[in-house]
Design brief:
- This protein is an alpha+beta fold.
- The protein is 16% helix and 58% strand.
- The chain has one domain.
- The radius of gyration is 17 Å and the shape is elongated.
Length: 91
């Protein structure tokens, strides 16, 4: 196998075995449950819905055993859209 073919095989295997997952939702509480088990700390993106000038921030990224399964947030808005991005397995 050529070097290029070998590199393409390695990249393909890595992408297949370590896919990035986007999970998202909307909530009105201070707890987000991803419904997914991230194996490393996910990137969590938050946006306040229905309130001008309101703020939102992540307080902690919560773990169940070795997996990140949710987040605790604070907000002064009425609802929060969230996206979590990372690598893991279905819950």
């Amino acid at each position: 196998m050529s070097i290029r073919g070998e590199m393409e095989r390695i990249v393909s295997t890595a992408l297949h075995c370590n896919p990035q997952q986007f999970v998202y939702g909307t909530g009105a509480t201070t707890t987000i449950v991803f419904g997914y088990k991230f194996v490393s700390e996910p990137c969590v993106i938050l946006s306040v819905v229905g309130a001008t000038g309101a703020t939102v921030q992540v307080v902690t990224k919560d773990k169940t055993g070795i997996y990140y399964t949710g987040a605790t947030i604070t907000t002064d808005g009425t609802s929060v859209d969230w996206i979590a991005i990372g690598t893991g397995i279905s819950a």
